[in-house]
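Posted in: Structural Biology > Protein-Ligand Complexes

Title: Requesting predicted complex, zinc ion in pocket

I'd be grateful if someone could produce the 3D structure tokens for the following input. Sequence and ligand are given below.
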Amino acid sequence: MQFPTPYPGELWYSIIARYHKRSGNPFWYMSIQELFDGRNTSTLITGFYPNESIIMVHDKFPNVIDLRKAVLESTLFPYLMRFYPKEKKIKAYEDFVNGVDTKPRLYRYTKHDKLRYCPLCRQEDIEKYGEPYWHTVHQIELMPLCPIHRCRIREITTHKSLFSGRYTPMPEDDEPVFDCAHYEPALTDTLFAYYRMPFEASPNIESDNLARAMENAGLISDMNIQYTKYDGAKLYKALVDFYSPELIEQYFGTDIKMQYCYLLSLYKVMVLAFGESRR
Ligand SMILES: [Zn+2]
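-- Reply #1 --
Done. Output follows.
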């Protein structure tokens, strides 16, 4: 049985799903048995973070699965690591391709209850490749629109374990929807830029553009300018006004607490990311 060659930007789960479809196996578990020799990989296959299931398939089909390419194109690894310093990113990447078990905090992204797709990408893929596939970029949860077609990304939601326990085909006859909120195109562009930026790119310790922008917007606490600490109430209101109460509540809750303002301060961010301070 041949293993399918990944399409550009194809999600890891999608590649496994196409293997299953081609195999003709009547049950998903039979394909999983073939690929993973009965090992329990159920939560890994749908993961957005590089995981052991990729290594196992690479070991079986080294001429089809390029380990490095799979990490960069079939998982959200580059996106999830976007705020990490260059050295930490590269170490995590090299550790993974060299088989070091890192168990990073970002492993929680291996568990989710959604698969997302764009109906127009689906149509184009069928025209170009003869079949649809799930795209890695669409899985960025905060991304509201397809960055190529600007229509709404659709979601299929199910119980967390179900995606990994079965083959999930993409829905058919799905009309694109172009209605969107005023901030959604810009948010889509920003997230797409993060997704596409070179893997080696990382935050610049010398730059404090964010702190300056916050200061200019009047969001620094009057009480604590020295530590460039944000004013939680003002920051929350600014976010709600620009985005929407629903989106902000989903990500921040009903307010931004004092301790989070402290963590957001430039000084703390630098200590967390670089293990050093400029003061
Ligand atoms: Zn699209």
